Amino acid sequence: MTLPEPNQTLIEIIRDRIKNTPDQKITFADYMELVLYHPEQGYYTSGMVDIGKAGDYFTASSLGSDFGELLAEQFVEMWQRLGKPKRFDLVEMGAGKGELASDIFNYCWHNYPQFLACLQYRIIEQSPSLTQQQKQQLQPWQQKGNLRWETWEDIPNQSVMGCLFSNELVDSFPVHRVKIENDNLKEIYVTLNGEDEGTPFTEITDDLSTPQLDQYFQDMGINLPSKDYPDGFETEVNLAIIPWLETISRCLQKGYLLTIDYGYSAEKYYQPKRNAGTLQCYIQHQRHNDPYYLIGKQDMTAHVDFTALETYGKHYHLEPLGFTQQALFLMALGLGNRLNSLSQGGQSVMQVLQKRDALHQLIDPMGLGGFGVLLQGKGLTANEQEPPLRGFTEKT
Q1: What is the predicted pLDDT for the residue at 333?
Q2: Would 63 disulfide with which of 125, 220, 302, 358, CB 3.0-4.6 Å?
Q3: 3-state DSSP helix/strand/coil % of the chain, to nearest 5
Q4: How far from chain centre, in Å, is Cα 181?
Q5: Domains (range + CATH), the chain
Q6: Which residues, including other chains, have CB under 8 Å from residue 351's CB and lie 6 or more apart?
Q7: What is the pTM (predicted TM-score) of this model?
Q8: Sign of dihedral through CA atoms 318, 322, 323, 328?
Q9: What letter does residue 209 receive in the DSSP assignment?
Q10: pLDDT digits (tens, 9 = 90+) for 40-73
């Protein structure tokens, strides 16, 4: 395995940012923001990111078209539940290489032409290189006029009627890191490492950068710090979800927010035995926990606190409608039928084995199948909320 070299230009940018702060330190959230999203040099924005077998990580849509096709079944039901409006907005936030959107379009073309005729597919993507890949992948649908790329600023207030959704997006939001020291909650900062030229940055702890961090744990009902937590306990806080949810609510007039990601409830996320947090880095499908290794050339993520999404969603009129695991979600939408149909012939033995393996990976409880699937809604009547949508008929 040949590893790339760290992005020295990005390292210098981070060094300059730290040097130009009064205390010669930045929050870990600021560091993660620069590493992943710096406009020219960030991991996601520089053109380095690759998704799939040849990249650093893969998503459900990398395994074939089934994930997108089953999601399409759920979106069609949402459209039906809303009374089959003449325009149904489907807003994908962070669209990867465009494979998921392509699978949704192709499936609806063959199975739900009425829905497709009403569909307005909108992509919000921060990475210029991924946007280019998406446009190449989705060129036929772009020509038909029911697909466009937008920024949040392009979407008028209360204009979306339909569903906003993301798959493995929230885990890549920059997070603050906190630590218990002598029974006090401190924040982990990034500063310059003057002793070792090979390791440009090091960590220090100091007072919290914002009272929102304390408030977050109060809002989640987590008593941190307390005697239940050991000295040295570390974890993360994703404050970026708060403005994200506010923006979604601003745009959404009526419909749904669907979030698929790996994570836990707050109670499980912040249990004392998880004393090193959930921060993970990925390089060529290898996972580790050193965010200062191969800076700018590796992915960096933290698990999602689904309780926080529900709690802060309510602040912005996004009501929780269902929560389940991806395995149950996809089985309820027909994945089991797809597995059963593999024995009916028409494909080679190799094709059947490959297809079966991909389907099993989607529902593997130790992998993708264990992902959380959260449904929130806004502006819906009681009849539009009940009974549960098909994907949420099986509870965890």
Answers
A1: 98
A2: 358
A3: 40, 25, 35
A4: 31
A5: 10-336+365-379 (3.40.50.12710)
A6: none
A7: 0.95
A8: negative
A9: S
A10: 999 998 876 665 555 555 688 888 999 999 999 9
